[in-house]
User: Fold these one by one.
Assistant:
Number 1:
Amino acid sequence: MFCVSDVPVVWCWVARKDGYIWLENIWSTQEGNGYGSKALDWFCTLADEFGVEIRGDIQPPHGGRLDYEELSAWYQRRGFSVDGREMCREPKIVPRRLASWPIPT
């Protein structure tokens, strides 16, 4: 759960797998405000910090604002490679002296 001013605005479901994290879904209760982007960016930074790959399937939510192509492009802008419905993001190398866990504002 990702909160803004103590109000939940993004929910995501992840599972730890052998050597990677599976991102089942991420959705915002307030689409179009950038909260989903901020939450995913924070999650990617955390995965980079620990050197963990993120994998998942692209599944647009029923009634959601983004269709498959738009959602695929959204993930690709955040460093995910997309092959059909599958997506993957390799961790970026973060120098330890610069590593931090930024909290999006």
Number 2:
Amino acid sequence: MVAAGNSLALNQGIQEEQVVPARYRQEFLTIAWEQVHLRSIFPFQYFSIGASLIPFIEHNDANRALMSSNMQRQAVPLSRSEKCIVGTGLERQVALDSGVPAIADHEGKIISADTDKIKIIFSGNGDTLSIPLVMYQRSNKNTCMHQTPRVPRGKCIKKGQILADGAATVGGELALGKNVLVAYMPWEGYNFEDAVLISERLVYEDIYTSFHIRKYEIQTHVTSQGPERITNEIPHLEAHLLRNLDKNGIVMLGSWVETGDILV
């Protein structure tokens, strides 16, 4: 039995209320206060994480709130994330619970901080710890996972302090988008119904640019005509299509490839 957090009998420890509203197996009941096992601490417990991140959700249409909470799962980390100006206050807790940022387990002092690791010396026993950082790794959704250090060298840190931001976090808070100027107005019919008209500055200045990493695998088999082999000697192909391949027929590191280019 989960009782409401604003119940007078549960808050002040008095029995002025003989019965309290409670939740049991997704049903709302009214029970005696002696039967309560747990209580709601935070009002956001009634909603999911996506719904709890929608500002002023009580003023939204129910269908639009459902769409907003589901569409947050489609968000991708931006190359330059930004904190939201209008939020619900749950952004920091969501970022901490996700495990994406690097958090200090003990208090100490930063010895060094670079792109791949952070070294800390503990203030108690003087031991040192090297915390590796994630650098441009692929996630299960083909997005880019990267951690950026946020503490300078020589800074004293406390337990639980943010050491490095991860994908879609800034300052230890969830940052899924950008703070842009939005106008609710018609514009020569281009934003009819669900259409959205954006400025070309958002494209040229990489405001909403995101990085995606894909992994490609290839297998060679032994056929009746002999074993297959990987090579750059492919007949009937233009030299332009083979420009990025090395002598073994594998694309070289640092090559700029486009749609239709051969990788292996």
Number 3:
Amino acid sequence: MVALTFRNTYLSEDPFYLSGVEALLGQSEGSATWLYAGSQATGTITRFALSQGSGLGSPTTVELSGNGSVFRVSDLALIGDGSGAELLASRVHTQQINSFDIGSTGALSGQTQAISALAAPVTQIATITIGARDFLITGTRDAPGMQIYEWQASGQPALRDSVTDHAKVALGNVSDIATITVDGTPFLLTASAQDNAISSFHIAADGSATLIDSFGIKDGLYVSGLDSIASVSAHGTEFAVVGATGSSTLSLMRVNPMGVLYLEDHVIDSLATRFSRIDALATLSIGDRGFVLTGGGDDGIGLMEILPDYQLLAHGSLLNTPGGALSNLTALTTVTLGTEVQVIAAGQPGLTLATLDSADIAAPMIGTAAANSLTGSARQDLIWGGAGDDQLFGGAGDDVLMGGAGYDRMTGGAGADIFCLDDDLPVDRVLDFNLGEDRIDISRWGVQSLDALTIISRSYGAELRYGDFAARLYDDGGAQLYSTDFSSGDFIF
């Protein structure tokens, strides 16, 4: 399985500046990369240098000016590109945005305020570039509606569209905003904590927004306390990932080329996922594979992957340790440096940096409707048989194998492999199951617990049964396996 590797924890000598970090943002210019951390508790932005193979660099901190004694940072965004990029910071329920010039070393300077040009209070912000024009999208957690501004050369926003909340749109108490591009068409996604729903909008070249679709509880999105939304690409398809704090759920929404939303998977937190009270969400794509990172009140970072059948697979979690800072996560972001993906999490009482080696994550191998024979590599493979009676060989590495429809035979090879069983009647075979290392994904069978699964001891290993579904596990050492040998950790439900 794909796993996060811990790199380091940063605990400030003055914890004041890393208290209540609500937003994390990475920025690269040339060969240099930085991380910005915005604090809701202190009204500061702290900058760290990032480099491949290293931990978080020495920080520098700037205080934000504004009305009131503390400018409570609620969100960060970049607008523009290259040497002309600016960092934007919004404040909790205040009609003000601060902008900074970004120097060649990532230092922030030239702080300016946009106040009078704004049409409403701002909490959440996002940016999008259409043609040569840069747009800022704003919403607030405590009021309905959304505004779209064009960012002027003067560094001030000019209102281009304002969308009011109504029965068909999710703009009541906007908890998050994301952008997504499908087949070259830009769309905007909004999440509403009041409506427990999301909406998609098409953004025209002049910045005007057209409602495309809304999806909420009445449509099957059973969530409470909708908090976060992020976009990600996987297997040639675009998705929105939705996190809800109250229900501790993660929902995967497919976005088609027209901007229409489709619910593909809905996961409730468990010990395998560890995103209870989810408050931090990030996504990344490595080639054609898409990953989701989660955090909340469960003392860890969860890592999930979008599979070719649009289901979420929980790879595992990076757990908090004594002296760590993975408790009560409030923000997550990723930065790619060469073949190293750095994952940064804000928790209590500081920041944590973990890594993924993208060079070790192989491109997916997808079969056809025919009988395929697919062989993986020494890397971490994703091998998907599709329809037909397939033979899959993982090779070395921690692989994910799925036979799909038909009588399939799967051999994982060396490493901690995950064998996904399809919800079809033909009996699949796992030919080298290593108990305690490999795992069986039976989530498509509808099994909710180990107690509901029938495990029959066989001379070759064991047979799994649930209703009309069955699979045979051939022990890698030729041993006979018994139901008492298995635990919940051997399965993905």
Number 4:
Amino acid sequence: MNVVSEPDKPSRSTAVTRDPRRRGRNLGLIIAMMVAVAVIDQVVKQIMVTNLQEGVPVNVIGEFFQLFLLYNPGAAFGMGQDSTWLFTIIQLAFVIGTTVAAFFLRDRPTSAGLALIGGGALGNLIDRLVREPGFYFGHVVDYISIGDFAIFNLADASINIGVVVFVIAILTEERRLKREYEHDDA
């Protein structure tokens, strides 16, 4: 009599899997979301570049919410304006890191957060690679001005929303694992 044992089933208790059969399960979803965010970001940026004058605000909701075209050589809040090359490398690393991490993630909320971060990084990376003053040193197009907050773009918003989603997903998973562990000990 031949006894065929069932292979160990991968644990469903973590957002990260080491089981090669499950790797990349969300890879397509993550890459599709990243590309969608970057494409939408680039389309909106092109609309803004075509229709707005640099430095001339257009009121949407009074002076609280304005469209304000700005070419940003630095990072968030205009920091590091002389380090465009460094931000290009960092954004490239985020895009590559997000894609690599996709092979290990199986949890959809964690994957979605990571995809939003990667898509935003990709959108701004495209600016750094193709916009003036030239390859690798391009300035990022910013156009959203809310109150006294910094001027930003859709890619920046995607990165920030992605970080919030990612952190909430990790904390929720951690809490669930703790409850599961405590329940197993009882």
